[in-house]
């Protein structure tokens, strides 16, 4: 089965407290094609909690993948069924997060040492759904970090039917480094991801880790099938305004940053009526004007006013009035600190 996610060459990484429905809605205003991911959702959040809170999204956010954390094949399969039923385009298994929470729960990167468990989850999920089941993992963890270790993991999971692997090109240390340090301290080892693609040409291999610009994206695409951008998507989200032209060859003309804010206003109104707070949405818009004139005034006004209980769309309009209305400058043009 060929799906909208199977051959997508660009995605935004799943990030806790970052890639929620509000951030994804904003991103979709200026990239229609990039594959977006949810935050990681544990199986118990899907099975035992408020399902709309765990899985809610707006139709314009698609194509959209749900990232799941867990190690029980039957629970993972049931969550995959639910995800497919509510309209997700893909389900992704988290085998990369190194936090103490995932270690105690036996999911995330520690599962790289248990490829048979991941393979069992993949097999059960693929039997349960028609949408793609994919895996995001690291190049290794602790002292299980050789290329051979990673290749063994991929081989076992591939044999269970997984064909798309997203590889964070850093190892993780389960002891001694925080999750934040694990995103920066271990060195990037891109060559091992390139080698994985060379030795497993039948697989769709996506690279992740430390990629900040679309010049870098295009360089990586010469060696692998896809590129996933993480923190740069949150710190400088408007770089994705060039994604559809540069990566997909589309004629789509993205809105300016001002037009993005104006297009968000009806969405803000709608979400406030659903019980959300402006700060839930405004937090994700703080970096929209990163490196542009007036960026600091924009951020300051939002920081000072969006947390009030009565705050509404007018806070965004007031902040927008503090930013000079320019033309369609390059998304990567930098003239002020972010």
UniProtKB/TrEMBL annotation:
Annotated binding of FMN, by residue: 14-16, 67, 136, 168, 208-210, 230-231
What InterPro entries does this protein's entry cite?
Aldolase_TIM, DUS-like_FMN-bd, DUS_fam, DusA
Report the residue ranges that make up the DUS-like FMN-binding domain in this protein: 12-319
Task: Output the CDD domains linked to this UniProt entry.
Answer: DUS_like_FMN (cd02801)
**Cofactor(s) the record lists:** FMN
Quick check: keyword Lipoprotein in the entry? no
Q: Does the keyword Coiled coil apply?
A: no
Q: What does this protein do?
A: Catalyzes the synthesis of 5,6-dihydrouridine (D), a modified base found in the D-loop of most tRNAs, via the reduction of the C5-C6 double bond in target uridines. Specifically modifies U20 and U20a in tRNAs.
Q: What is this protein called?
A: tRNA-dihydrouridine(20/20a) synthase
Tell me what organism the protein belongs to. Persicimonas caeni
Lineage of this protein's species?
Bacteria, Deltaproteobacteria, Bradymonadales, Bradymonadaceae, Persicimonas
Q: What gene is this protein translated from?
A: dusA
């Amino acid at each position: 089965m060929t799906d909208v996610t199977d051959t997508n060459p660009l995605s935004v990484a799943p990030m806790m407290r970052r890639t929620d429905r509000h951030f994804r809605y904003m991103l979709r205003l200026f990239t229609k094609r990039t594959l977006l991911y949810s935050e990681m959702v544990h199986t118990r959040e899907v099975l035992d909690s408020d399902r709309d809170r765990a899985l809610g999204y707006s139709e314009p956010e698609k194509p959209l993948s749900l990232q799941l954390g867990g190690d029980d094949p039957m629970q993972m399969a049931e969550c995959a069924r639910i995800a497919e039923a509510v309209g997700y385009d893909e389900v992704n298994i988290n085998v990369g997060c190194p936090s103490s929470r995932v270690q105690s729960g036996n999911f995330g990167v520690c599962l790289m040492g248990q490829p048979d468990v991941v393979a069992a989850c993949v097999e059960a999920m693929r039997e349960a759904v028609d949408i793609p089941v994919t895996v995001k993992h690291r190049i290794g963890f602790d002292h299980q970090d050789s290329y051979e270790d990673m290749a063994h993991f991929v081989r076992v999971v591939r044999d269970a039917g997984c064909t798309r692997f997203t590889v964070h090109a850093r190892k993780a240390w389960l002891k001694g480094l925080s999750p934040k340090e694990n995103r920066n301290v271990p060195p990037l080892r891109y060559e091992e991801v390139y080698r994985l693609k060379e030795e497993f040409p039948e697989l769709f291999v996506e690279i992740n880790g430390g990629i900040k610009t679309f010049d870098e994206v295009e360089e990586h695409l010469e060696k692998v099938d896809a590129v996933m951008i993480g923190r740069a998507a949150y710190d400088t989200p408007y770089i994705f305004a060039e994604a559809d032209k540069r990566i997909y060859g589309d004629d789509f003309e993205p809105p300016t940053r001002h037009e993005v804010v104006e297009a968000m206003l009806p969405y803000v109104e709608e979400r406030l009526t659903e019980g959300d707070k402006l700060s839930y949405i405004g937090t994700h818009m703080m970096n929209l004007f990163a490196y542009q004139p007036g960026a600091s005034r924009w951020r300051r006004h939002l920081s000072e006013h969006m947390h009030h209980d009565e705050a509404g769309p007018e806070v965004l309009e007031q902040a927008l009035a503090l930013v000079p209305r320019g033309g369609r400058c390059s998304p990567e043009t930098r003239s002020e600190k972010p």
